Amino acid sequence: MRPVFLIAKNFAREQRWPLFFLLLWVLGWALFGLLDDERGPEDALMIFRQLAVYSVTFGVFFGSSAIQADQRSRRILAVLSKGISRRQYIFGLLAGIALVLGIFCICMGFTASWLLGRYGFSAGPLWFGMLGLWTACLLAASLTLSLSTFLPPLFAAIGAGALAGVPALLSLRGDAFSRYVIPVHGLLQPLIAGDLSQAWHASLGMVVLGWMETALFWLVAAWIFSRRDLAVAVE
Amino acid sequence: MPRALEYEEITKEYRSWFGRRRVRALQNFSLSVEYGEIFGFLGPNGAGKSTAIHLAMGFMRPSSGSGRMLGQPFDHVATRRRVGFLAENVALYHRRAEAAIRFYGGLNGLHGPALAGATHGALEAVDMQSESGRNLGQFSRGMLQRMGLAQALVNDPELLILDEPTSALDPAARVSIRELLLRFRSQGKTVFLSSHLLSEVELVCDRVAILSHGHVVRTGTLNDMLEATDQVEIVAQSVPPALFANSAVEGPRLHFAVPKSLQREAIERVWSAGGEVVSVNPVRRSLEELFLELTNPDAAPLKLTEPRAGK
Fold first, then answer.
1. Which of A6, A73, A77 sits opposite B103 (nearest CB)?
2. Cross-strand bridge partners of residue B135
3. Sheet of strand B5-15, all strands in order from the earlier edge strand to the far edge
4. Whole-angstrom Cα distance, residue B220 to residue B206?
5. Exposed/middle/buried for B148, CB within 10 Å: 0-12, 13-18, 19+?
6. Is A83 in contact with B111 (Cβ distance < 8 A)?
7. CATH of region B229-295, choose from 1.10.20, 3.40.50, 1.25.10, 3.30.1490
8. C-alpha angle with apex B163: B22 to A221, nearest 5 degrees?
9. Residue A146: what are its φ and ψ, rounded to 5°?
10. A103 assigned to some structural domain
11. Is the pTM of the predicted complex or chain greater than 0.90?
12. CB contact at 8 A, B56 and B161
């Protein structure tokens, strides 16, 4: 597990600037709450929902570029020449994405519980919602990562959007089963569709399902990546 | 008998999407590297050297054939912990030099005081201890190459696979790397060295293989390969220079080369002209000459002289 941890830590370090950019957003939201006391909860909620969607987008971005960035820079050669398997490498990248987005979700959760708490919202369901958001981010990242093992980053991101979007559309049209297929939308729904008059909650079952599908896509990514030649740039 | 590195009839084809375009990088490629030797791996650009190395490291799979590294099939994860690898155009994460080497050592399962000691030793081996606090992003290409070597050495490997390890180094650094490799061999370890610097290879390698168009065209010890001509060089004195075509005069001595089959006849001609034979030695080509001869069929053949006929 130690190599996996090292790769995860290294990934988080490499992505410190995107993370900083994301955290600036949260800081901006906190400042908005601090300075603009006159407005109602709707504006704060709108920014919160935006941040939730952005975090999933960043999950897709991290997932699509993680392997490619290492391959393009040729840094992957020094990593995979060591005593680690490709499955561990992919797991390390995914754990790194989980770490980066986990830091973001925690910061966002603290800001949300302070800011939305001022409008009478209780922190418990919110933190459960943040767990759902983190799971949705990881699921999106894992799906994109598995596609990026054989597709360029842009196509992997588009493919992930399509694969997660079609079941979401079908479930919105009433197909009950589609709700459980790549449930990124299902996990996000309590956050992006809820308002202060409703109790926010993500279904625990949906979170568990999200984790299981994340693990499944990790295995798929590892399986494909282990069977592919490592294509590195000549210089 | 187990070998440090062994390729058996490996063919590697690169295919484009849908397999419409194919490039054969290696064809029925076989090679053995014994334990405890420094093995030079030579070939022109595009000959397949890096492909062969990447196959051994498990970065890619052969289209057919198989290979073993330290007695295990290629792509055996645990075996890679006993191997050090330096890629051509080394690329490492930009962090402090010491932290970077600790990171790569950690990936090989080292931790705690062992990792700290190994990191210290690896930086010392490549003479980069004084730079251990600097970020790799500020390093020159030569310094990065030394850091690449340090990350390859951090796990105290039994087999060192180096792809162009000295291409960006200054002469002093090259000498220290050469000494490092010789020290490595004296500890009974194995080095597989791919390089374009033929003079370096000539200085350190026990055996070499020359690769051209995806297959080995010559392999053997340097002595065998460089002496493998059918020419001998004869040095004589008190002989008129006109006796042999293309002879060179150095003071009182005359130097000329003849095919081995004509060696006896040439010596008798020296004697019959009242001269004295000083030495007769096999002609040694330089590795560069041999390399060009084997890898570039259009290159001009070696010009060796023959005795002038008659009279």
1. A6
2. B96
3. B22-33, B5-15, B64-69, B72-73
4. 9
5. buried
6. no
7. 3.30.1490
8. 55
9. -65, -35
10. yes
11. no
12. yes
Structure-token pair, residue B156: 């105290």
Answer yes or no: is the ipTM higher than 0.90.
Answer: no
Q: Chain A: nearest CA to B149, how far in angstroms?
A: 11
Cross-chain residue pair B111–A14, CB shorter than 8 Å: no
Six token digits for residue A201: 């909650």
List the single best residue of B12, B86, B107 to mutate versus A (max A Cβ within 10 A). B107
User: Which residues of chain A approach chain B closer than 8 Å at the C-beta?
Assistant: 2-3, 6-7, 10, 13-14, 73-75, 77-85, 227, 229-230, 232, 234-235
Chain region(s) in chain B for CATH 3.40.50.300: 5-225
Numbered ranges of CATH 3.30.1490 in chain B: 229-295
Cα angle: B68, vertex B70, B72; to 5 degrees:
50
Q: How far is A212 from chain B (nearest CA, A)?
A: 27
Give a yes or no: residue A234 inside a domain.
no
CATH architecture of B5-225: 3-Layer(aba) Sandwich (3.40)
CA distance B69 to B7: 9
Nearest CA-CA partner of B295 in B198, B221, B223: B198
**Are B53 and B43 spatial neighbours (Cβ–Cβ below 8 Å)?**
no
* Binding-site residues on chain B for chain A (CB distance < 8 A): 14, 54, 57-61, 77-78, 80-81, 83, 85, 87, 89-93, 95, 103-104, 106-109, 111, 148, 151-152, 155
Cα of A159 to nearest chain B Cα, Å: 18
Q: Is residue A235 part of a domain?
A: no
Q: How far apart are the CA of A92 and the nearest CA of chain B, in angstroms?
A: 11
Range of the domain at A35: 2-226
Contacts of B155 in chain A (CB under 8 A): 82-83
Digit-by-digit pLDDT tens for chain A (235 residues) are 889 999 999 999 999 999 999 899 889 888 877 776 666 677 788 888 889 999 999 999 999 999 999 999 999 999 999 999 999 999 999 999 999 999 999 999 999 888 888 777 777 778 888 899 999 999 999 999 999 999 999 999 999 999 998 888 888 888 778 888 898 888 888 787 765 555 455 578 889 999 999 999 999 999 999 998 887 655 4
Which of helix, strand or coil describes residue B6? strand
Residues 6+ apart with CB under 8 A from B279: B233, B234, B235
The closest CB to that of A78, out of B78, B92, B155, belongs to B92
Q: How many domains does chain A have?
A: 1
